[in-house]
């Protein structure tokens, strides 16, 4: 399917990433990390789950907006990246919040900030990247619903109404909250605008950095 083959129904939910560092790195806040990185341009490495992955693009956007130079180390999956982060072989990783939460709680990793536009209900004490010193930065993972573009408007409306109702139920919203995801359930028009915004943002990052898939 191409973009013209699908019609948006609703943005189901969004979930945050978190910028984490190995505890051996002498920083406690994102501002301290930015200052530390600026004093060592290109010397610090950061892990990702692969070229062109969400963590890769998210950190490339962070680098450009924070004005820091970090060297990318792509892995074949988040598991390998996390292993080397925990051992200290690579000191920085932007990862799915839920995946890193146990290690953060155990003190094996240090969380500096969440990447969404708002603080996460899963970790309300953590500041956002925007709050911590990078105005305008917002990156989330998300789940959305789309249907074939030829779907009749009546069917799309019924599907949208039923989906939003389900999202508001305690059962569904509770399961999403357990995954550190927050329900959205917006209109098809709002979801279409969101998709355009996401496409434009990441296309710009890819053009500026020359990112290529593995």
Description of the molecule:
With 214 residues, the chain is of the alpha/beta class. The chain has seven helices and seven strands. The chain starts with 5 loop residues before the first strand and ends in a 5-residue tail after the last helix.
Q: What is the number of beta strands?
A: 7
* SSE run: EHEHEHEHEEHHEH
Terminal CA distance: 21 Å
Look at the helices and sheets and give the structural class.
alpha/beta
Unreliable spans:
none
Count helical runs: 7
**In angstroms, what is the radius of gyration?**
18 Å
Helicity range of the residues? 40-55%
- Residue share in β-strands: 15-25%
Tags for this entry?
214 residues, single chain
